[in-house]
Write a structure and sequence with these properties.
The protein is of the alpha+beta class. The chain contains 6 helices and 18 strands.
Length: 333
């Protein structure tokens, strides 16, 4: 008997989608659009111990990029109305759910191709994913993406790792192997998204979307537990260009409003970026309730507050960032 080596899309997606829909789910979160199943049927089946896993992940990525290019040309994408702080979801292919021996209970929800429609300022829950392949791609617009790490194995508390802006192409494409040590079923790649303007993205998820029902996490922010009062020094824009590796600066800038208030950790000397000469850095967004920067008047649209040595060391320890001999190491998300 021939072993199946590729994914198989549902032959009755409306029935299968109804089977995995939870009571009370908003219909705009589970719209279905056919005619993309052929892409799904080309996706290789991925398994933890496959000697060809790396090659198959690359194949999966290439199929998703090809699908993204197709979607960008399709007219229906331009006609999904989505208002500010709204979110809608169109499933464009799905795997049929797997039932138990009785045939009445779903044992495993299948993988899906999902197009997400984001209204300006919509923020997703902080959420994780089940093991398996995961692909995420910007089709139009911009997303602010925050990644997180678990800090206690038996708790859903997480801490930020990085904040970055994705404006085109792939921003995640990976295979997460199952780990028997994981306490939670869905703790792979913990992140959340905030749309900057109207955006559209393409996702391959290893199981039917959760809507934060059982895959959400609680964020622990540094500034919520550490008092920065009198532990910062204001810098000029020029001074900010010449800070050593490992320096931590609290930033509000009208040049990069899409980041909101955020910390930067200096990782290298200044280079030319989109908005001019800037230090090499990684960003971590502050909590939405953090208001300390409100008492500073921007100069040329900018507020830079350098953390003093005590506060910097506390920040680095909180985020598990190591600095040694001008080499800086960040934890994995």
């Amino acid at each position: 008997m021939k072993t199946t080596i590729k994914m198989v899309s549902s032959k009755n997606p409306m029935k299968d989608l109804a089977a995995v829909t939870y009571v009370g789910q908003d219909p705009t979160q589970r719209m279905y659009r056919p005619n993309y199943e052929s892409y799904f049927d080309e996706m290789p089946i991925l398994e933890d111990n496959d000697a060809q896993l790396k090659k198959k992940v690359k194949t999966s990525h290439d199929i998703m990029v090809s699908l993204a290019e197709k979607l960008k040309q399709d007219d229906w994408m331009k006609h999904i109305p989505v208002g500010e702080r709204q979110f809608k979801r169109t499933i464009i292919a799905m795997e049929a759910p797997i039932y138990d021996e009785t045939g009445c209970c779903i044992k495993k929800e299948g993988a899906e191709f999902v197009v997400a429609h984001w209204g300006d300022h919509f923020a997703s829950p902080v959420h994780g994913h089940a093991p398996g392949y995961l692909h995420e791609e910007i089709l139009e617009g911009k997303l602010r993406i925050n990644t997180y790490r678990m800090v206690r194995p038996d708790s859903r508390v997480v801490r930020p790792v990085e904040t970055f802006i994705a404006s085109k192409g792939t921003f995640a494409s990976m295979y997460n192997a199952a780990d028997s040590k994981n306490v939670f079923k869905r703790q792979a790649l913990i992140h959340n998204f905030v749309s900057i303007g109207k955006s559209t993205s393409l996702h391959y998820v290893p199981e039917h979307t959760r809507d934060g029902r059982d895959n959400s996490f609680v964020v622990e922010h540094f500034e919520a537990s550490y008092n920065l009062d009198k532990k910062v020094t204001r810098l000029t824009a020029q001074e900010g260009l010449h800070q050593p590796i490992g320096t931590v600066i609290l930033v509000r800038s009208s040049n990069v409003p899409e980041y909101g208030d955020h910390f930067i950790i200096i990782t290298g000397s200044s280079i030319m970026k989109e908005h001019g000469l800037r230090p090499q850095d990684k960003a971590i967004q502050t909590s939405s309730t953090f208001t300390a920067l409100n008492k500073y008047k921007p100069e040329m649209g900018l507020v830079l507050l350098k953390l003093n040595e005590e506060a910097k060391q506390a920040f680095l320890e909180f985020h598990d960032i190591k600095v040694e001999n001008d080499v800086i190491t960040f934890p994995n998300a």
